[in-house]
Amino acid sequence: MEYNDTFQTIAFESEETLFKEKGSKFFGYAFPIETEDEVKPIIEILKKQHPHAVHFCYAYQLGIAPNLSYRANDDGEPGNTAGAPIYGQIQSFGLTNALVVVVRVFGGVKLGVGGLIAAYKTTAQMTLEVCELVEKTIDVPFLISFDYKNMNKVMRVIKEKKLDIVSQEMEMDENSGMPIGKIVIKTRKKNAETVFSIFDLMFEIDIKFI
């Protein structure tokens, strides 16, 4: 079974870019995001940076096919003149888990539908061109629980399979009074079933998806 478990995104927040057209200023920003909940706080920060701006237009995309989600917001500009051209650039660069915001400070001259589309597209393109892009993997987390005496068995598999340890802790079992190990690991989606099977078949080892 083929898994698409990699995606391209922005490494970190971009530098501010500026595009000027007939007196209007278009400030561009790009951010790596993982959830929709991150968008509003970012917009609020930009509103404080640009108290004289009227339009804070943006687009974002999250996830990979077939579980893609996206949004394009014109924030008061004529329909599809801002959010859509910004989103078009996110698609053009092949990005996901990315947010692009273009802040417009009106210069007194109306640009018309065509002018707006071109300005928002150009600003988004300029912004993404200065970004460092990275390829990331979609990872699946597991919780492994085991008696302390089996620690070496667990760690051997983790080392052999080059699994990432997210967290690990020891706690005392209420019934036996013996120490219990709990390790959260993650692995690439395409390897998840194999890794799960290895631990699931091991004696006295408990593994579950989280």
UniProtKB/TrEMBL annotation:
Pfam assignment, any one: Impact_N
InterPro entries noted in UniProt: Impact, Impact_N, Impact_N_sf, Ribosomal_Su5_D2-typ_SF
GO BP terms: regulation of translational initiation
Source organism superkingdom: Bacteria
A Gene Ontology term for the protein's cellular component: cytoplasm
Segments forming domain Impact N-terminal: 22-127
SUPFAM superfamilies named in the record: Ribosomal protein S5 domain 2-like
Family affiliation: Belongs to the IMPACT family.
PANTHER family, sorted: IMPACT FAMILY MEMBER YIGZ, IMPACT-RELATED
Name under which the protein is recorded: YigZ family protein
Provenance organism: Flavobacterium cupreum
Organism phylogeny: Bacteria, Pseudomonadati, Bacteroidota, Flavobacteriia, Flavobacteriales
